[in-house]
Structures are given as C-alpha cells and as structure tokens.
Amino acid sequence: MLIDGVKRTLVQQLNICFKQPKIFGKVQPLSPTSFIHSQRQFLQKLNIFNSARKFHSSPFINGRYGHRLVKLWEQPEYTTEPLHVYRTGGRLPVKNWKDEIVPGRVWTAKLGGGLPRKWYWVDTHRMTAEEVVAGAVFQEKITKIMPDDNRSAFIALVAGPVKRRWILCTENMKVGDLVTNSAQLTESLTGWTPNDGDAYPLCLLAIGTKVCSVEFFPGKGGQIARSAGAFCTITKKFDGRVQLQMPSKREIVVNEKCVAVVGTVSNSNHWNEDWGSAFRRREYGLRPRTGRKHKNDGRFARRAMPVRAPLIMPDKPFLQKDNNFEE
Amino acid sequence: MPNLQRFLSSSPLAATSFCSGSITSASVFKVQSRGVRYKNSGGMIGGRRKRIPLNWRDLNFNPARLPSAWKPPDWDKKQEIDYEREKELAKYTPGYKPAIPSHEKDDYHKEPVYFINSSLPFSEGLKQALFVTKSVIADSGLPKQIHNLAESVSYTEQDQRAIQVIRHAHLFDVDPRSLDKENKVQRWKADNYRIVAKPDRYCPLIMKELIRLCETRSFQLSESFRNRIVIEGPRSIACFRRDCSSLDTEFLPVQDTSWNIRFDLCADMQIHSKDPLSAFADSNAVLATKDISLAPIYPIMPIADLKSTHNYDFVTNSGFSSKFSRPHLHTIALFNTDQLPPNLIYGKMLTHLFTLLYSKALETYGDNPQDLSSPLSAQCVASDGRVFQFMCMQLNTTKLNSDDGIKNMVWVDNEYVKEELYQTDDGMTSAAMYEECGHTTWKSPEYYTGYNPDVFKLFQGFWLNGVL
Would residue B80 count as lying in a domain? Predict the structure, then answer.
C-alpha cells in the first residue's frame, strides 16, 4: 500500500511498529531501512527544533493568538502590570536610515488590525533549577483568575512569599486556594498526594498522573502543554529519566528534575466555543481567508500514521541557533 | 493596401521577416519566453534561484517569536553608564553632576531598606499593613463615640447641601482641560467628546466642598475652629526596624525575620489642631491587646512586593517643627483618584496614619521603643468622590521589635472587615455616598440616584470630633 509515497509494511500500517528512539545532541546514525526523500526530511530527522514545522506563515496553524510584539527589553524587572502589545501587521523588522527599527516587508498577509490588547507576563518557572536542587518548599495564594487575550487558557494571579506573579491556571484552581511548589514530598502541606495546581519535579509524581506546563530541560521553564485543556501523562520512569506522552500523543523522555504542574490546563471547553461571526476574527487581528484547508491530506478520513519514536532529551539543552524570548 | 494590411496582421512572423531590423525579432522572442523564465528562475536571467529557499521554515522569521529583532541595536549601549567618562566630564565642565555607582554614594548602607511610597502601596493591602505596623482591628465598625457625635451634630438641611455639592462637581463644574483650544494638553481623542467629569477633577472638589460644609457647621457650634489648620501635601517619613518573631519560617525562603522599613509619604490634606484628640480606647482595652495575636498573613511575608534600596537616609521626620502652633494631628484626607479597590486604600490609610503618629511619638517620647503612657490617636478619610473609607487609629507602642505585648489599634467603618480581610482584593466593600451622578443618569430628574445619608453624617461626625 502506498501512503505518502512510501511503501509500508502491514505492521506499520497498524501502528505497531517498533519504537526506535532518537537521540538528539549528536548526529544519529540512520538505519538502513529509513528512507530519505529530500534534504528537508533529512534535516527533520536530524534536529526537530530547527527543522520541524514549528512556525508557519498562517496564524491559523501557529495559533490564533500568535501575533504580538511586546517590548520586554524595556522592563527592568518582572511586573504583574499588563504590558502593551504592538501590532506588526505581519511585517518583518528592518532598519531605516536613522538606524531605527521599523516594520518592513510583508512576511504574512494574514495578519493585521484588531482590537488593542494587553499582555500579562506569565511566569512559566514555577520553580527554578536552584530551588529544585536545594529542596525548597513554598506556597502561594491565588488571588485572581481571569482570561488572557494572548492565550487560550486562563491565568491566575498568585501572592507568594516574596512577590506576586501570574501563572497558568489549571482546571480546578479556585480563588483563595493555596498552591504548593515543592521539591520534596511533605505530609504537612498536601498529605502525601499532590493537589491540582501544585508544581513538583517529575521524579516525585506517580506514573499515570496528568501534568501540564512541563519543562524539557531542568530550569528552562514550562514549554509543552500550556494551551487550554492540554496535559501530558507520565508513562514510564527509568534511571533518572521520565517518559511522558505529550498532547500530540508523541512520547518524550526528559530529565526527572524537570518541573511540571499537576492537573490539566484550564478552559478545557475552549475547542468547543464558537467564533460567532467573521468580525470576531478581525478583532483578534486575523484577516479574512479563502479556500479550504487540506492540512491532514487524508481527503475524507484520518490518515493512518505509524507511531513515532519517543524523543530523548539530554540533561542540558544542546546548541540551538535560537534567540527566542519566553513566550 | 488594405489587402496587404490584412495579410500583415494575420501573420506576424512573416511581417518580422518582411520588416528589416533585429529589434522587432528580439521583442517577439521575449514575449514567447517570458512566462517560462519567470516561473523557473524567479526574475534572474543568468542563474537558477528558487524564489522560496528550501529551508525557509528554519529561518524562523516569525516577528512574534523574534521580539529581539525589533530591539533597537543601541538599546543596551544607552542603558550602560560609563562612570570614568562621567568623572572626566565632571572635571572639565563646571556644574556637571556626574553619575556615581550606588556603592560609592554617601548614603550607601550594607543592609537594604524596604520602602513604601505614595505611588507604591502595599500590594496585599490592609492585611499586610496591619502586620507591618503591628496593629490589630480593635472592634467591628468605628468607635461608638463617633457614631454618637454624628447623630448629635447632624441637622436637617445637610443632605440637601451634600447633594448640591455632588451635583456641582458632576454636572456644573467646567474642567479647564476641556477648554484649551490650542490643544496644548495632549489627551486621547475620545476625551474631547466626553462630557462626564473625570475623577482627578471631581474627587478633590467633592472632598474640599464637604469639608467646607463641616467647617461652617463647626463655626455654628463652637468657636474652636480657630484651633485648626488645613495643610495640603505635607511630607512625613517614618523609619523603623521590624522584627516579626511570630512568623513561621518553615516554608518561607528566609530565616532572618527582621527588616529595615521606611515609609515616605505625602498626604493630600491634613488637619492639625492645638489640642490632641481624645483616645478611642481605655487603658484596659489597650492592655487587652496583649492577648490578641496579629492577623496571620501566610503565605506571604510582610515585605512581599516591597522595593528595596541600599541608598537611603534612616531618619524619621514628621515634617513639622516642635514650635508649630497646632502640633497635634487630627485627620488625614486622601484622594483616591486612581480608584484603587478598598482593600488597598485601607492599607494606604493605615500607612499614612502610622507614619504621622509614629514620628510624633518619637519626637515626644524619644527614640527608645516603648509602650506609650498616653497613646496617640488620629483619623483618616479617603474617597474617590463616590465611595468613602473611614479609619481611626490609636498608637499604643513603638515597640516593633517583637510581635508580642501591646499592639496598636485600628477601627474601620466596614463591620465585616475581619471576614473580608482574607478574601481577594475585590472582596472588601465600603460605603458609597451615591450610586450614580452625571449627565448620563437622565432617567432621574435630579440627575443622581441612590443617595446614602449615613455617609455624610459620619463624615461630619468625623470632622467635628473634638470640637464640642
């Protein structure tokens, strides 16, 4: 049977193919059975972060809230106050003759306009790597829960011992509750069982628990499962590593000191809500589109795909040519 | 000739061959090949170039993901200060004040101070302020003597006059900012079309007019109005070391629970009198505060969200000399023009009261921390023009080294404040003088709705405390 121009065995069609782990950080010898179509596919196999379809010119694939420019470099330190979002109109930054940076040529024609919105600095580091190593335990009180213009999930304002900050809101958080960030299991706070919204390193959590806002590398901040209703499931644990199933159903192996938040992300009914009108899209800064999506390319049904091998992350982030800010 | 013309138009190739000249033949060749070349070579004639590079997704040009690309290239350079160059500039330019690094300044201290400004209130509001100033809420509601005084002082026409003040501020007051025809004051476009009064205009106006009403009343009742003076915008500083021994530090990131704290505040209006206010509570009630513990603020620390500096001057100052003829604080008035929620405003009022009373206590009783033989008391009123907050405070001790012993006492007009202290910022409530007033409330003929007569009665009682 020909799918995607590749001959597949019956075993592969039934999604029972053998999982062949891929190791990143050094070039992996390709097995003779794997077939390379193009240079792009080769790059994809080499390194997921530099070549995968992470960003797209279409905002419908990037996410409906993906259009923002926040001047974070002007902030001397963390603030809970909302920051202004500058609209780029889908244009790339260029220098003019004064060496000022101004919007230049159009990069994507699908963005533009929209209502003004505010950007809240959501802290994805529930615990830093130092606090995990030191075995810190501290609690925070939830004072406010509200929707955010720039993401699908809700955000929560918490008052901690030193400062107050915005965090991602999980499904069962309520105003007035205490959430725990702990690098050790303590009976006095949670009674040996982590509550919804608590942050722990993955080594302390049991197999089968649903977690969200999971770190890929210790101390880097939560990166996966941050949108509404998303969660990862812990499937395995072995010698200092934890295997998780990501929202895409792909599996990933990370260091056990990576911090995760227990529970699923809030606003899980987000996928079910209606835009209401075409103008609602314009309010979000999305220009009208035409044509039909053929994204899955299964024509009339879901395409049968083999299970992909789990990603194995090293202890430290490997060299990436990526200047990303958080968010 | 017409026949020949028709022949030429039908077969251009023949015409080109017929007409001598290479230009025409070249142009025909271009027309035929343009489409093909455009597709393949993307405008380049000699080489082969793909219009979209193969790895164009890898370039990660998403401007939303690349805010650093929008960062001005000289941003970091501008932030840096070249201190050596500053020194050189100071040498050769007279009157130049060079920038000095903070650890070389004269007022540098090793230990930081945590400070509060009028622009930086306590983020947790009343709860945090109570813990830092070592005070407890004495009773539900305001002291009874103020309520009794408010009843005795009130007269029949006062509500009518108060309503006239409100309507004056909202309906008939002309904002001079709306009159500038040269457009010197830069404002939002929408503000030009707005008729409604703005809070930073009507809030001080209503407060001052209500105070004027109270003063006329005091003039009717007694001749003691000469003993008073109203001061606008005085500055006062209180510096102290707070040791919170009762804090449970098991789940807090610090072990040392003593901090230097500095309040540097400007009250909007302040009334001083020749005679001190009588105490709100007896000596028995003061002694009874030994048994009351401070309201717990876990999980936050008392210094949560406070800014800290190493450059400061650790001196308390009430802002008045000892020879001042009206030395005793009577009432503070705060204009809540930013329309902060009641919780934060109560915290702000408490910090204002504490700075003035504490600095006064240090002047009279000396710098040694002690339980005051005769406690100091004062009042505070805050308003955003519609919602009013009242607070009384009695300073019993200046011993802030421990959480035990006698505490300072606070009364708040909200009767359920002890329960609402542990709710969110929006949870606390306070009394509104009226529901709505303005041109938009056209349904009621008087252009206001929901007037509450108790608020001005209480305001008047507050103001005339100590007059009779």
Answer: no
